[in-house]
Amino acid sequence: MATLTRTRSRRSPLDLSGDVRRMLDSVFAPSTNWEGEDEMAASAVWTPRMDLTETDDAYHLQMDLPGLSKSDIKIRMDDNHLMVSGERHEESTHEDEDSVHSERYFGSFYRSVQLPASIEEDQIEAHFRNGVLTVELPKSEASRPKHIEIN
Q1: Which of 11, 62, 84, 108 has a 20 to 30 Å separation from 68 between CA atoms?
Q2: Residue 45 predicted with pLDDT over 90
Q3: In the chain, how many domains are there?
Q4: The domain spanning residue 86 has which CATH number?
Q5: Which domain holds residue 82?
């Protein structure tokens, strides 16, 4: 499960503290009680990169899923817990080809995010275009910031 950390700008490519924190979080993350989540996470072969941003009204998730189609992706929302999973199928090779170098991942993936505010689950919208999954998660009215006017 991803830990939400608010930042105003992207980090420098030379800043390794975020990478070390994510590595330690993945090793020492507490176990979850979500049905099937542990099994899905354990079977994941690769982890797609994602950005999660927040406005007063909603959370906006963008996830890079190149080489997939909409039918390869599953999205589930359960009690402010967003789960995205799926599978990228390996492309067939010819018998006369030998692999010289391979960096592309194939197989199942899984990402999970616990959102800190209540979400209007019936108003969630997901779009998939050019290998990027976009999910709009509108906040409930009760969890939106209240602007108070001074008299």
Answers
A1: 11
A2: no
A3: 1
A4: 2.60.40.790
A5: 35-90+104-143
For residue 116, is pLDDT > 60?
Answer: yes
Question: Structure tokens of 87?
Answer: 């599978």
Question: Tell me: the pLDDT tens digits for 60-79?
Answer: 999 999 989 999 999 999 88
Q: Which residues pair with 76 in a beta bridge?
A: 83
- Which helix or strand (DSSP H or E) is residue 74 part of? strand 73-78
73 in a domain, yes or no? yes
Domain-located, residue 13? no
Position 31 scores a pLDDT of 43
SS (H, E, C) the chain: CECCCCCCCCCCCCCCHHHHHHHHHHHHCCCCCCCCHHHHHHHCCECCCEEEEECCCEEEEEEECCCCCHHHEEEEEECCEEEEEEEECCCCCCCCCCCCCCCCCCEEEEEEEECCCCECHHHCEEEEECCEEEEEEEECHHHCCCCCCCC
Measured between alpha carbons, how far is 82 from 72 in angstroms, rounded to an integer?
17
What is the distance between the alpha carbons of residues 139 and 145, in angstroms, rounded to a whole number? 10
Q: Is position 16 within any domain?
A: no
Tokens describing residue 56: 């007063």
Residues 81 and 61 sit within 8 Å (Cβ to Cβ): no
